[in-house]
Design brief:
Length: 106
Amino acid sequence: MITGDWNRTYWQRGTIRTTIQDVLAELQDEPVVLLKLDGLAHIPSVIIEEGRREAADLSFPIIVVEKDGEFQSILDGHHRRQKAIDENRTHILAKVFRGEVINESR
């Protein structure tokens, strides 16, 4: 995953590049679901700046990658997940991305 400016975030496999805008366009008609936070516990956390976590809006869904029926990673919303954990919530709003071109090992 290449980041910096959120609007320039992308994932690349070979010559295929998927931008955050591509992901959002694909998810446009997908429903928002309520996920158990326990179901995401196997996904590693990332370092979150305190101010960003505190300002996180939990009414906005995170984006989770699902492959073969399992959640693999969080594309967007680590700060919202951490805020929900800090607030002892049991669930979080999410949209599920089932794309295949993402390579997060970069």
